[in-house]
Amino acid sequence: MNQLLASIGIALRALKVNRARSGLTMLGIIIGVAAVIAMVGVGAGATARIQDQIQSIGSNLIMVLPGSISSNGVRLGAGAVVTLTQDDAKAIAADCPSVAAVVPTVRGAVQVVFGNNNWATSAQGVTPDYTTIRDTSMMYGQFFTTQDVDAAAKTAVLGETVAQNLFGDSDPTGQVVIIKNVPFTVVGVLSPKGQSPTGQDQDDVILLPISTAMQKVLGANKANAGAVGSLMVQAVGPAAMDQAIEEMTALLRERHKMLPGMDNDFTIRNLTEVYAAQETSAQVMSILLGAIASVSLIVGGIGIMNIMLVSVTERTREIGLRLAVGARTRDILSQFLVEAVTLSVLGGIIGIVVGLTASVLISHFAQWSTQVSLMSVAMAFLFSALVGVFFGYYPARKAAFLDPIDALRYE
Amino acid sequence: MSDEPVIEIQDLVKDYKLGQVPVHVLKGISFQVGRGDFVSIMGPSGSGKSTLMNILGCLDKPTSGSYKLDGVSVSELNRDELAQIRNKKIGFVFQQFNLLARTSATENVELPLMYTNTPARERRERAMKSLTAVGLAGREDHQPSQLSGGQQQRVAIARSLVNNPKIILADEPTGALDSRTSIEIMAIFQRLNRDEGITMVVVTHDPDVASYSGRIIHFKDGKLQADEKIAQPRDAKKDLEQLPAPQPEELAPA
Questions:
Q1: Which residue of B has its CA nearest to A402?
Q2: Nearest 5 degrees, angle CA B136-CA A3-CA B98?
Q3: What distance in Å separates the CA atoms of residue A411 and residue A407, rounded to the nearest whole number?
Q4: For residue A152, what are the contacts with CB-CB under 8 A and spacing of at least 6?
Q5: Which residues of chain A approach chain B closer than 8 Å at the C-beta?
Q6: Residue to test with chain A: of B86, B89, B166, most A Cβ within 10 A
Q7: What is the pLDDT of residues B125-136, one digit of tens each?
Q8: pLDDT tens, position by position, B215-239
Q9: B120: which chain A residues are within 8 Å (Cβ-Cβ)?
Q10: Is A155 strand, coil or helix?
């Protein structure tokens, strides 16, 4: 240990002799390490943002939409007919073991009025399981209850955008809003979720008990009183998604009395899968950024090798003398290796500071979220030390195997 | 044990290949140097005396023949074993001093101890002792550029002494010095030889320098030409006393 500290001291002194040269050599490593840290930080920030968005639409979420049907050869688009019912929702919840929760939903555009304010938004009729499926939390008040749904109570939960537009910053709980001439008591406001991965404002919404929404606001389907717009389904876990889809498909085909060979009259979409693809592409981007930055670290390493080779040539007489007074091969080898590693590790430490500063500046000025993990800092540091060993070895070896007589006579 | 010679070489041959042409530099040399001897090796340039010095200093290996240093046959040793021998048994003094620039006198003297397991404090003490022995006490922190040529050579001698060597090999130690400083260096060698019993081997082309030793080996064309014993070597210390006062050069920049 003492020996190592002594060699580091000797190395530092040798590096101090050529301050400018050592500084410039280190600059290569500084830029490399800083680039790795900042770029990996930007990449991780982008990935985290996509993960947040996926989290905001709800975890393990599957959407079941009414499907297209052909009527006399004319194919109608998805949702053209209402084939899903509240009973389907109940059956799925009861009979599919891979499904954790099901929320039937209806939606429609409404004008919400409070006093002399009004706001056009989308009304959704849902059940209280919505909170678990969409992973929501409340900013004010509470979500409506199952009793509210059973009793078709006139209660409403506002999205943050709606609350902001009608009530400003004040707590609207207990206030009464009018939707299609029906008064609703506001029982709570959802915490903001921000934009969906497709850019929609997820907070511009008003949630009503599905029973109330169908009877009083949006109007039930004339042909099928129990019909709903879509089903939100949560699988029991990420691994159970495919299983849940299979179970639901089988169950719905059976309930809808579909013969083998007939097209499904419903569509099942695995939303998480779509956004997981985006996440993968963000991860690929961060790997690419890191790889490009690593190239500059390697270039910095070549700079170290270059300077160490110059240094060995310049100090040939010194090496000769050291060999003459009894330095063994490994003494010289370690002297120059320690010098190269000291150079690269010092550069690495400064590079970490520069990289951290850079990522703070990037997130501040470019408004990109960056995430610097301890892992990436540790990796960058370790990598810079390895660069020192790798690129320092050849010059050090060259020095260690010099012939003492030639080295002593070197001019 | 004490009768055993420090250097014992037998039929020493050294050939070099210059391209295709083999050059016979040493053509079968045999001699011995006893413990506590002060030997000068003289000869014209190209006579092979530098090659002989390199072999004696374990920096080079002979092509054939045997070389025993302090009873150890060194011909068969490998690179690192030779380094150990140089470190433990031999002190080198070079014509160009070969001190490390921008490094204090003490640290220059400590250099051989850096390759032993000597603790830092003991290294410092031994370096100070060596510097005192060559009359440089008080100059420990000076760097080579702040010392005169004679002082630099004395630092180099202190460095050669620091590991308590059996033998000091000096290759033209006065070649870069003026005559007065040369005599001072020879006075130090004579004192080390007499008081410490260190065997001295000095290569020189200067008969004045050689006249301070007790034996002169003359070299020519890779062969031993003459082996001359000097019954009454000159005393460098007495010579110094007869010289006029020190020249300004010796008043080195502080």
A1: B79
A2: 40
A3: 9
A4: A209, A211, A212, A215, A216
A5: 2, 6, 17, 317-318, 320-331, 404-405, 408
A6: B86
A7: 999 999 999 999
A8: 999 988 889 999 999 888 999 888 8
A9: 2, 6
A10: strand
Pairing label, strands A176-179, A182-190: antiparallel
The pLDDT > 90 percentage for chain A reads 31
Alpha carbon B190 to its chain's center: 12
Beta carbons of A174 and A90 less than 8 angstroms apart? no
Structure tokens at A26: 């280190």
C-beta of residue B55 within 8 angstroms of C-beta of residue B15? no
Cβ contacts below 8 Å, chain A against chain B, sum to 54
Is residue B157 scored above 60 in pLDDT? yes
Query: DSSP letter string over B36-87?
Result: T-EEEEE--TTSSHHHHHHHHTTSS--SEEEEEETTEE-TT--HHHHHHHHH
The whole-angstrom separation of Cα A130 and Cα A138 is 12
**Cα–Cα dist A169/A283, whole Å:** 38
Tell me the C-alpha distance between A59 and A236, whole Å.
10
Q: What is the CA radius of gyration of chain A?
A: 33
Chain B residue numbers touching A330 (CB-CB < 8 A): 80
Nearest residue, CB atoms, B83 vs list A321, A326, A405: A326
Residues of B with CB under 8 A from a CB of A: 54, 57, 59-60, 79-80, 83-84, 86-88, 92, 94, 98, 100, 102, 111-112, 114-116, 120, 159, 163
CB contact under 8 Å between B115 and A328, yes or no, is yes
- d(CA A127, CA B60) in angstroms, rounded, equals 93
Averaged pLDDT of chain A = 86
The neighbour count for residue B185, using CB atoms within 10 Å, is 25
Confidence of residue A394 (pLDDT cuts 50, 70, 90): very high
Distance in Å, alpha carbon of B49 to nearest chain A alpha carbon: 14
What's the rounded Cα separation, in Å, for the pair A175 and A163? Answer: 11
Give the whole-angstrom CA distance, residue B239 versus residue A29: 61
- Rounded Cα–Cα distance for residues B120 and A165 (Å): 77
Q: How far is CA B162 from the centre of its chain?
A: 13
- Nearest-by-Cβ selection for B59 from A322, A324, A327: A324
Name the residue with tokens 């690269």. Answer: A344
CA B184, CA B238: separation in Å to the nearest integer? 11
- Among the listed residues A105, A62, A60, the one whose alpha carbon sits nearest the alpha carbon of residue A84: A105
Percent of chain B with pLDDT over 90: 64
In chain B, what are the domains? Answer: 38-58+88-250 (3.40.50.300)
- Give the distance from residue A21's alpha carbon to the nearest chain B alpha carbon, in angstroms: 17
Dig out the tokens for B16 from the structure. 């070099």
Average pLDDT, stretch A298-322? Answer: 92
Strand pairing partners for A102?
A233
Place of tokens 């204090």: B104
For B98, nearest residue in chain A (alpha carbons): A321
Half-sphere exposure of A158 (CA within 13 A, CB side): 33
Cα R_g (chain B), whole angstroms? 18
Of the candidates B54, B84, B100, which has its C-beta nearest A326's C-beta?
B84
Q: For residue A309, give how far its alpha carbon lies from the nearest alpha carbon of chain B (Å).
A: 19
Enter the pTM of the model: 0.72
Provide, as residue numbers in chain B, all residues whose Cβ is less than 8 Å from the Cβ of A322. Answer: 111, 115
Contact yes or no for B35/B6 (Cβ under 8 A): yes
Contacts of B172 in chain A (CB under 8 A): none
